[in-house]
Structures are given as C-alpha cells and as structure tokens.
Amino acid sequence: MDTYRIVTVSAFGIESVTKKELKALGVVDPKAEEGSISFSGSSLDVARLNMFLRTADRVYIEVGRFTAATFDALFDGISEIPWENHLDADGAFVVTGKSKKSALFAVSSCQSIIKKAIINRLSKHTNFKVFPETGAVFNIEFSINADVVTVLLNTSGKGLHKRGYRDLVGEAPMRETLAGALLMLSDFNPENAFIDPFCGSGTIVIEAARMALDIASGIDREFDFQKWSKFDQSVYDIARQEALDNEKRDAPLRVSGFDIDPEAIKLATRHAVRAGVKDKIHLQVRDVAELKSRFAQGTIVTNPPYGERLMDIKTVNQLYKTLGEVYRALDNWSIFVITSAPEFERYFGLRSDKNRKLFNAGKECRFYSYFRRP
What we know:
With 374 residues, this protein is α/β, with parallel strands linked by helices. Helices cover 31% and strands 25% of the residues.
C-alpha cells in the first residue's frame, strides 16, 4: 500500500480527544500542530480514519510542503508536486486556501496560480492537453503560514460530521463531531443509564447510542477518495467490513432524550430512525423540572438553551437553576453541560469539577463537568 503523510483537523478544544481516537485506531506518533494532527500512514489508514473517527472534521493527504515568498516560487513549488500520481486528468479540481503572516497574502491570486501550475504539470505528464473537469472531485487545500506552503488533498469530501442520518435540523444544531467529543470528555459508559434532558433534534443521544453499539461514524456515507482512480479502492471495502464486524446492535442500552418541545422530539425520532437506533433510544416530551430516573447511577450530557440563542436571559437562568435542583435530587449521577452563559455555575448552584473552552456553532462556550462522587 502507498505511504502518505496524513493530516486530520478538529474543532478548537477537541484536538486532544481526536488524538486519543487516533492512537486507539493504531496511529503511531501523531503530532499536533496548529489545530491539525499529522502522522505517516497507508491508504488503508485513510479509509479507516474516515470510517471510524467520531471527532475529526476531515482527513487529508499532505502532497507538498515548501517555502514561497513570490508567485513564481509558488508556481514552481506546486509544479514539483507529482500530481499525476494523485489526480485523474478528467477530475474537477477545486482549490481553496488561506494565508497568514506571509508575503503571499492574496488568496484568490494564489488559488489561480496553484490551479494553473497543476494543469501545467498534468499536461506534461499525461496525454491530456484539455482538461474537461467532468470526473471525480478533488478538493485541494493550501495554507501559507510565514511563507511556508502546505498543500493538502481532502480525502473525506464533505465534513465528517455529515454522518448521513440528520437530514433536517432544529434550531441551534450541534455538529455530530462535537457531540461525539462531549461524550468522550464525559464519563459516559454504555453499561450505565444516559440522559440528555434538552435533546433537541437528537444529536447527542443518537451519537451516544451509536458509540455504545460500535456503529462506525462513517458507515452510512461516501468519501471523495472512493472515486479516485489513482487511490487503492480495495481499502474502503476492508474498512467497511471491519466496521460491520465491530457492531453490537443487539446490546441493551438505557439511553433517553427529553425535550419540552413536541416538534423537537418528532425530529429526534426521525433522525434516530435514519441512524438505525430508534429501538435503542427512549425519546419523550418532558419538562426538565420533571427529570428523574429509576437508575441509581448514570450520566447526563446536554446542550441547554442559551439566552441569546432560543429564549431570554431571565428564563434561561431559571432553567439552569431548575436543572441544578433536579440534578442534586438524583442518586449518583454525573452531569456535563455545554453553554455560553457566563454565570452558569452561579444559577446551577454548584461549582464544576472542571471546565474547558469549546466552540459550538461558532460561539465560544464552556463545557462544565460534574463527576459523580465515589
């Protein structure tokens, strides 16, 4: 199998979670660098990471890295990359990028030069003189940082949060990758009860159920690399079969999602059906004030309304107070809450064991952790 420099990217604050995932998947010596993690791997690794990673945004192949402070140097550096080994001559080449602290700061001009250099290289190494761009899509991304140019080939295509089950979303949706990260940052254990009292369209409870059943995050979707003729296509079948062999769809679960909005529960039910876990999740219209459980031990992970998001500040603060009261009435539960409310702990009534900064839908939030007492 071919050997590549593989790069994964994750949202701010969850890079460490993705790094743990990578190690669990057998990646050796993953190195973190400015929001990305890179390592050496094979085409099978590319397929497996796309199939199994729950918290990463995309999986890339690094095809080139060089220094360029002029447009001529950029053209020459791109021309040195063996594009004929990666791209189909009839492919649709989409070039996007960014620049920071570099002499080459005009991104649109860099895009044009990079595409021209790619076509120039391919015209010399293939029989094509005209490139129709009617074939498979190749998303080529560049970043220029302090005049160092890094060129990546996006193997995933659309973001890995696009699992395939969520065709409709409610207000203020959370990405599936963030939901997966929150679960991994919590003490979620498939053997214990689990509740999301503000489940909305169902993302957190669905991700919890799929994680507990070992349903691979990418099992229901396609990836761009599957359409590339220069990429070993046998690896996808290997990764998919591994995913199917790992599934534990008959395992008993105690996963519940509640919401005061009947339309939200209807939407969550639709998504649970599409995700293949409807029979594993209890979904019900319920006010958070009525939250209780017959189980002595469990975990709550939730994304409650924010004041600027879905309701006024006074109502939200009362909601947090109520959440704190019902939580303290539970026997031996832990709770993990993501919110942008700066005074959450005050109204909840307890100082968290720890918290970390995350971003949800582009908004800065805190993820508050309250662990059950031994």
